[in-house]
Amino acid sequence: MKFIDLRSDTVTRPTAGMRKVMYAAEVGDDVYGEDQLVNKLQARVAEMLGKEAGLFVPSGTMSNQLAIRSHTQPGDEVICEYDSHIFNYEGGAPAMLSGVQVHPLHGDHGILASEQIATALRPKDHHYAQSRLITLENTHNRAGGVVYPVSVIERVGDFARENNLLMHMDGARLMNAVIASGIDPAAYAEPFNSVSLCLSKGLGAPVGSILAGDSAFIDRAHRFRKLFGGGMRQVGSLAAAGLYALDHHIERLAEDHHRAKMLASTCLELGVLENDISWTQTNIVLLTFPRGNTAQISRELKTIGMLVSVVNDHRIRLVTHLDFDDAELNRAKDILKRVLG
Ligand SMILES: Cc1ncc(COP(=O)(O)O)c(C=O)c1O
C-alpha cells in the first residue's frame, strides 16, 4: 500500500527534473569557497531577501542556531514565541551552543506583537540577563502555518531598533507566507538582521537552508558553521537542487495551500478542525481531539493508508506538499471521513 504521507512537508523526494540537475552539477570544495553552485545559491537567496550575503547550511536548526550564536554573547537573552521551533524542537541548543537564556512569550496564534515584547524587555541592571535578540517564526509551524502580518513585523522592527535589539526570522516556510500574502520576500525580511530560509520543506529540495544577513554577520556565522561541524565539501549537487527548487517550486506552493484548505474544510465538517478555517492560511492543518486519543487515531489512519503527525495527546497535524496531489487529496478526504466520521 502506498501511504499518503502528511506528516510534514519535509517528506518529499526530489522530482525527476531536480535529480537531473543534481546529477549534472559541477562541484567544488565549498570549505574552500570553490563550489560555484553553492556560491550562486547563496547570492541568489541573499538578493531575494534584500541582504548582503548568504550561507548554505545543512538544516534549518543549524541556520537558526548559527544566527543565535552570531548575534549574542553567553548570558544574553533571546525573546521568542512559546510554540516556536527554536524553543521547542531544537534540543535546547540556544543554552548549549550559545549559552543564552530563552525568554518565551505566548503569542496570539503564534504572533507576537511589539507591545507584548516590550513587557519582556529586561532593565539595564546587573541583576538581569540582557535582552539582545528577538526571533519570529514566519510561517508559524506549531500555530498551523500562520502568516505574520507584515505590519506587525514592521512595528516589532521599530521597537527593536529603538531598544538596540537584533532581529532574526526563522523563515523555514517564508515562501509559503510570500505566496499566501503576495508580499515580497525582501519586504518581510527588511526589519530583520538575519533570515533563515529552508529549501527542504515546501520547496522540495532534499537538504539545506540558507542563512542571510549583512556580510559581517555572515562572516561570523561562517566561522561558527565550521565550529559546529557544518562545513561541507562537494555539495554543488545539493545547491543545484536548491536552485531548481527556487526556479520551479515557489509559485506552486499555492496548490499546497489550496489542498490544505480542502482538507481543513473536510475536518471542519467532521468537527475536528482546531481553529476557525481562516487560520488555515498555508500548508498546515491542525486537528483537535479533546478526548486525548490522538495516538489511537493516528494508528487507525495508518492502517488504511495515511500518515499524520501526532503533536500531543489532543492535536494532530497534516501538512500538504509537492508529493501530495489531487488524487491523494480525494483519498485523504475519504480516509478522514472513514476514521473520524
Ligand atoms: C519553523 C521551523 N524552523 C526550523 C525547522 C528546522 O529545520 P530542520 O529540520 O531542517 O533542522 C523546522 C523543521 O520542521 C521548522 O518547522
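The radius of gyration is 20 Å.
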